[in-house]
């Protein structure tokens, strides 16, 4: 399917690896110029170089922390008029709510709620004027089925989800949509990092913990980041102009509910 994205421009934050990188790659494969961000220069430049080499499109690397005003300003300076905005940031650490201070909460809200809202605030009106815009926020399956140890994520992402629900109806008349993608377990550094910590706590081997998690999942495997990236590209496509305000769970059947 031709997604109708040739020549469009996208900002993809938090995209040197994992799900953000996969989204940037799938967009680039459809002719989109991508402006990608991460805090660590080396892997970010490497990802931009791979995108240019693999898809023959421009890929601009912006070293930036998207949770800070300076980081977001740098991204917007590199791409003031994006057609597509994919909001992403690192997930907060697991823990017990009794140990979290106000500062811990503010950090989680900045990363997983407010930075996305600020990026939308800076770009949505331009999309409406140009009569095309796609905003995709990477959230988590924890929005639908909270994970107790990830209370910071459950709370902050639910806040973004509520905001998006109200916003999504405001642009659709002008071909501007806003949706959330909810990943289940995907084989990324984030997933391996949390599994590594669980293995260390239990005195077990990482691979043993990973295999146990794969087998406990209905699909018997973790998602591949490319599968996530392709769904993102579709939501950004010309064909997806009638899809807005949705929370699309991509979890290989992990969520056990009917709806
Ligand atoms: P990942 O493999 O750890 O990759 C995170 C990417 O984001 C890296 O490129 C990282 O680069 C960048 N990043 C992190 N914080 C940033 C910041 N403040 N500013 C700019 N870039 C930043 O993570 P992932 O698995 O792709 O996860 C992406 C998001 O989905 C996270 O919020 C995660 O919690 C959520 N999620 C993931 C899963 C899963 O199974 N993988 C499931 C549910 C939800 P630098 O560190 O160099 O900045």
How helical, in percent, are the residues?
A: 40-55%
What fraction strand?
5-15%
Order of helices and strands: EHEHEHEHEHEHHHE
DSSP helix count? 8
| Distinct small-molecule ligands in the complex | NADP nicotinamide-adenine-dinucleotide phosphate
**Strand segment count:** 7
Span of the ends, CA to CA: 28 Å
Low-confidence stretches: none
Radius of gyration (CA) equals 18 Å
How is the largest sheet built, in terms of strand order?
Answer: 3-2-1-4-5-6-7
Largest sheet: 7 strands, parallel
Structure explained in plain terms:
- With 259 residues, the protein is of the alpha/beta class.
- Helix content is 47%, strand content 14%.
- The protein has eight helices and seven strands, in the order βαβαβαβαβαβαααβ.
- It has helices spanning 18-29, 41-55, 69-78, 102-130, 151-171, 189-202, 206-216, 225-235, and strands at residues 9-12, 33-38, 59-63, 84-87, 133-138, 176-183, 247-250.
- A seven-stranded parallel beta sheet has the order 3-2-1-4-5-6-7, with helices on both faces.
- β2, α2 (41-55) and β3 form a beta-alpha-beta unit.
- α1 (18-29) runs parallel beside α2.
- The radius of gyration is 18 Å and the shape is globular.
- It starts with 8 loop residues before the first strand and ends in a 9-residue tail after the last strand.
- The structure holds NADP nicotinamide-adenine-dinucleotide phosphate.
- NADP nicotinamide-adenine-dinucleotide phosphate is lined by residues 13-20, 37-40, 65-67, 88-91, 111, 138, 140-141, 183, 185-186, 188-191.
């Amino acid at each position: 399917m031709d997604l109708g994205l040739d020549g469009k421009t996208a900002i993809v934050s938090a995209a040197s690896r994992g799900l953000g990188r996969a989204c940037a790659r799938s967009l680039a494969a459809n002719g989109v110029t991508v402006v990608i961000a991460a805090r660590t220069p080396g892997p970010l430049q490497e990802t931009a170089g791979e995108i240019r080499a693999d898809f023959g499109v421009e890929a601009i690397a912006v070293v930036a922390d998207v949770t800070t005003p300076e980081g977001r300003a740098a991204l917007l300076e590199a791409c003031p008029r994006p057609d597509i905005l994919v909001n992403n940031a690192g997930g907060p650490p697991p823990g017990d709510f009794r140990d979290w201070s106000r500062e811990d909460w503010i950090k989680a809200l900045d990363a997983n709620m407010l930075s996305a809202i600020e990026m939308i605030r800076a770009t949505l009106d331009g999309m409406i004027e140009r009569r095309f815009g796609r905003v995709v926020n990477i959230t988590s399956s924890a929005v639908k089925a909270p994970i107790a140890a990830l209370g910071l994520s459950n709370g902050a992402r639910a806040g973004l989800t509520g905001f998006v629900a109200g916003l999504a109806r405001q642009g659709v008349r002008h071909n501007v949509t806003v949706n959330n993608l909810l990943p289940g377990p995907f084989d990324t550094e984030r997933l391996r990092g949390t599994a590594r910590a669980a293995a260390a706590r239990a005195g077990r081997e990482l691979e043993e913990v990973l295999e146990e998690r794969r087998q406990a999942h209905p699909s018997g495997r973790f998602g591949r980041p490319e599968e996530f990236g392709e769904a993102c590209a579709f939501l950004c496509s010309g064909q997806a102009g009638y899809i807005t305000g949705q929370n699309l769970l991509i979890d290989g059947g992990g969520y056990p509910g009917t709806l």
